Amino acid sequence: MRLDEDLEEAAGGATGPGPGLRRARAWLSRAVEPGTIDFWRYVEDVGPVEAVRRLRAGAAPERIRALVGARAEEDATLADLARAERCGARLLVPEDDEWPALPLHALTLAVAAEPVGPKGQSDRTTALVPPLALWVRGTGRLDELVDRSVAIVGSRASTAYGEHVAGELGHDLGARDWTVVSGGAFGVDAAAHRGALVAEAPTLAVLACGVDRPYPAAHGALFHRIAETGLLVSEWPPGCAPLRHRFLVRNRLIAALTRGTVVVEAAARSGAQATARRARDLGRQVLIVPGPVTSAMSVGCHELLREEGLGAVLVSSAAQVVEAVGRIGEDLAPPVAGPESARDGLGDVAARVLDACPVRTGVGPERLAAVAGCDVLEVLRALPALELAGLVEWTGTGWRLAPPPKGRGGPGAAA
């Protein structure tokens, strides 16, 4: 059926996301680049079906028609939908039950604060504008996957340290039933995705090209594995190329779809920094993994930590990430503690008696009392407990520190 016929049928009162409405959304996803404030507002005002009908008839406002240009006469909707079906993808529209309305509502609130006229509006590559539709490839449901999700982003030219940390975070978050969201790029992104896959957890890659077009090409196998349990997501129809400006535009989706964004490594100027600031603007938590102060790949992370108003939180483990983005009072990270020692919990007198014990030659309670600065009776009360703890021993002539167990520092080792 021709597009205009499907649109006319949809405009006639058809309910639900039928063929006409879905083709209208598919047409809109190719007509104008995502992130255009005025175009999104126009579609919201008149509806997707009516917006396409007016644009194709030349009845839309001149400013809106200028955004579409020569694309108004083109129709690749059937080809796009067929191409998506061939690669196991589908078009997800706001009218679908699977649409992640709650997390994306933050974008709706953000765009409402933009000026009505073009003057003063945010640039398209940084504007916080909701998507008109999403092309998704994979077996998961988008709304369920992003319900408990965290973004992990960072440098493409990552160091071994950055890839190790990203992979460990991805694995540990996946093991805690959190979805890892990233951009599918080299470096930190790929390490985070692979970490989640090793934990047999779903992960989600937000792409700057069509979901049928692996970019980078070397990640074709990785994207196939992601689609088996998670999702590949894009605002651009199948076949679209990964143009430079599209990476900047897609970053807002990574920030919006998740509860928080973790920056593992970032240079002085990086897309990861931009994603973190978009997360802040959307009311999401910004989390930063620190790195060596000598590493150029951690300069951006440290600058984000220093940036006033960003509210970034330093994290070093998945438990700390979950504590920051999880439910208050439920997802608490355990306190960081060193290895337990038999010295832990000793009272003041017992600790002083222990410190007074020599290493080799045993001495009597009187000598220990003199060194520890306490009564002999207090020494005699402390020694049995210290012996039971394996900290001191009786030599036959006096008391001394118990020798440490072989292979490790023992209770009597120096603190």
From TrEMBL:
SUPFAM superfamilies: MCP/YpsA-like. InterPro entries: DprA, DrpA_SLOG. GO terms for biological process: DNA-mediated transformation. Residues 129-325 form the Smf/DprA SLOG domain. Belongs to the DprA/Smf family. This is DNA processing protein.
